[in-house]
Amino acid sequence: MPRYSIDGIDLRIPRHCLNDGLDQQLQQGVYEWKEVNGLKRHLKQGDRVLDLGGGAGYIAIQAARIVGAANVATVEANADMVKAIEQNLVLNHVDQVRVLHGAVVADAFSGDTVAFDVKPAFWSSAIASGPRQGAVRRMQVPALRLSDLMQAFEPDLVIMDVEGAERDMARQDWPEMVKTVIMEIHPQLYPPTGIREIFDAMSVADFAYMPWGSRGNLVVFQRLPD
Q1: Inter-CA distances, 124 with 92, 135, 146, 215, Å
Q2: pLDDT at res. 133
Q3: Shortest CA distance to 156 belongs to which of 39, 21, 62?
Q4: For residue 177, what are the contacts with CB-CB under 8 A and spacing of at least 6?
Q5: Across the strands, what pairs with 12?
Q6: Helix (H) or strand (E) segment spanning residue 208
Q7: Where are the domains of the chain?
Q8: CA atoms lying within 13 Å on the CB side of residue 118
Q9: What is 32-223's CATH topology?
Q10: Which phi and psi (to 5°) does residue 137 adopt?
Q11: How far is residue 91's CA from residue 53's CA, in Å, rounded to a whole number?
Q12: 3-class secondary structure, 110
C-alpha cells in the first residue's frame, strides 16, 4: 500500500484508489494544501469540526492536531477510504476522531441510501448524477442528512469537499452554532449561476465571504456577528 508523509502526517492509501495525478500531489506534499491553509487560519482550540468528504483522513488529522481528536468527526462515502481513514487515524495517534460511512445529502432527500459513483481516484468519487461516466462502480451507501449530522456533532466549523453537492448543502438551514464553513466549490460541474446560488444561499444564512483563508475554488464563509 503506498505511503506518504505530508506536513508530518503519515498516510497510507490503497493503490486502487489512486491515479497518477493524485499520487503526484501526495508525493509533492501539495495534497489539499488549500483546505489546510483555510483550516489553520480559522480553526481554534475549543472548536468542534465536521469534515464532509473525508478522503484519506488528512483534513481530520490536521483538525485533530488543533482541537483534539475527540472534537472531530469525518464523513466518507467510499467504504475503502473509510478503512484507510481509520488506519491513518491510528497511524497518527488520533483514533478518537469519529468516522462515519455515508454520503451527505440535503434534508429533502427521502431515501435511506443514495447511489454513489466510485472513481479511479478517490477524490473524484461523488453522489451519482446521470450516466456512470468514468466510475469504476456505482453502489448504494448510507444517506446522511446534513441537519442530522450537525445536530449530532454540534460543530463550530464545517469543512466540505463533496464534489458538487455543495450547491444543495449551501441551501440548508445552518444552525447558530456553526460559525465557519470552508467549502470547496466545483465550477467544472455547474455553470456560474451555480456559484451565485451558493453565495446567495450562504448570504441568506448570515454568512459572508471571508478572503482570509480563501484561495481559488476553496471558499471560506464566516457567520456575521449579531
Answers
A1: 25, 9, 21, 20
A2: 73
A3: 39
A4: 150, 154, 155, 156
A5: 3
A6: strand 207-215
A7: 32-223
A8: 17
A9: Rossmann fold (3.40.50)
A10: -160, 160
A11: 20
A12: coil
Phi, psi of 59 (to 5 degrees): -65, -40
Q: CA 61, 169, 95: angle at the middle one, nearest 5?
A: 20
What is the grid cell recorded at 142? 448510507
What grid cell was written down for 24? 503526484
For residues 181 and 221, what is the distance between their CA atoms, to the nearest angstrom? 5
pLDDT tens for 123-176 read: 999 999 877 777 789 999 999 999 999 999 999 999 999 999 999 999 999 999
DSSP state for residue 8 in the 8-state scheme: T
Q: Mark residue 163 as left, alpha or beta (left: phi above 0; alpha: psi -120 to 50; beta: remaining).
A: left
Q: Hey, is 199 helix, strand or coil? A: helix
32: left (phi over 0), alpha (psi -120 to 50) or beta: left
Mean pLDDT by 10 residues, the chain (226 residues): 96 96 96 97 97 98 98 97 98 98 94 95 90 83 97 98 94 96 95 97 97 97 93
Quickly list DSSP for 165-182.
THHHHHTS---TT--EEE
- Residue at 222: amino acid letter: Q
For 193, the enclosing helix (H) or strand (E) is helix 192-204
171 within 8 A of 145, measured Cβ to Cβ = no
Helix (H) or strand (E) holding 207: strand 207-215
Distance (Å, whole) CA 215 – CA 10: 25
**CA–CA separation, 213 and 18 (whole Å):** 27
